[in-house]
Amino acid sequence: MSLLDYFKTSKTNSAKLAKERLQILVAHERSARNQPSYLPELQQELLKVIRKYVKVNQEDISVIFESDDQQETLELNIVLPEHSQT
Amino acid sequence: MARIIVVTSGKGGVGKTTTSAAIAIGLAKKGHKTAVIDFDVGLRNLDLILGCERRVVYDFVNVINEEATLNQALIRDKRCNQLFILPASQTRDKEALTQEGVGKILEELSKTFKYIVCDSPAGIERGANLAMYFADDAFVITNPEIASVRDSDRMLGILSSKSRRAENGDEPIKEYLLLSRYDPKRVKLGEMLSVEDVQDILSLHLLGVIPESQSVLNSSNSGTPVILDENSNAGQAYLDIVDRYLGEDKPHRFIDEDKKGLFGRLFRSK
To answer: Residue A50 domain-assigned?
Structure first.
């Protein structure tokens, strides 16, 4: 084994980590790029309305926007708490 | 009609001006009449890299404001008579650039020039937006480093939505990847993103890899663009890039480590 190989194995592969982080980040940013800018506000307002009736957290409500050549869909997903009485 | 090339990256310090100067000289040396424009109003540096800083009289903003004609402001390169430089203004800010003014200048240059290279400032403010707005081709300069790759992806989003071509529904801007400051040794050690890694993320057509090279600093020190240093790796990389852009089929170089020199042999058993 050469000296170079010794250094190679003793180090963690940081490039691999960089690539994984980038892939996640870039995919996320690309999807955000194509969606309407009102989505975060919509999410906030929906949350307010729903909270009048049910106790839900910010992370329990998701607004997903998807588009292809044919159509655009707005998907709203609310996870209700197990005991949903207020 | 001229072909308008924007050299962009989003992030600063990755080599936009070095690349703009190199490819402008490269294209001009091939016999194509080429103009290179510094869009970094307020932070002009292209003149330094090209070694013509003492010949600047009028600038880009003077021409936009009709205080000087285009011919008065253009500086002819002393080494290559097919190359002309339009320097940025040093005393104004980027708000001095208007879409109408820039459009007019590019249109006038298009009548007599074959290529117009737009050296974009860093960031996504007005100077950067106007540098890319009229482009036909985009050279996206990226370093194998996470912040640079992320910013490049952001620029790709802007290129595809906020350009003249996008607004008119024309054929989109042709985007090319130039990976600079590449160090094959560190890639091999797993310390640096590889060409494949960056391409997996950005999915761009690779125009060339420019290796990390001491000659880049030496060249900027003396105001002689690195492409004129034909013995240097970086100079050769830029020569290849110009050839490939002009349609030549050249194999990529500088992606793998050099043949082992003395130092390498000392550290290797075989």
So the answer is: yes
ipTM field: 0.82
| Closest chain B residue to the Cα of A34, Cα to Cα | B157
Structural domain tally of chain A? 1
**DSSP 8-class letter at B51:** T
Q: Whose CA is closest to B215, among B203, B201, B227?
A: B227
Tell me the C-alpha to C-alpha distance, in Å, between residue B163 and each of A17, A25, A81, B168.
Answer: 34, 24, 47, 9
Q: What is the pTM of this model?
A: 0.84
Distance of alpha carbon B162 from alpha carbon B166, whole angstroms? 6
- Sign of the torsion angle spanned by Cα atoms B99, B100, B105, B111: positive
Query: What is the domain range of residue A70?
Result: 21-80
Interfacial residues of B (vs A; Cβ cutoff 8 Å)? 145-146, 149-150, 153-154, 157, 187-194, 197, 200-201, 267-270
Taking CB atoms and an 8 Å limit, are B267 and A2 in contact across chains? yes
Mean local confidence (pLDDT), B73-81: 97
CA dihedral sign, ordered B62, B63, B65, B69:
positive
Among B150, B192, B267, beta carbon nearest to A25: B150
Res. A72: pLDDT tops 90? no
CATH code, domain carrying A32: 3.30.1070.10
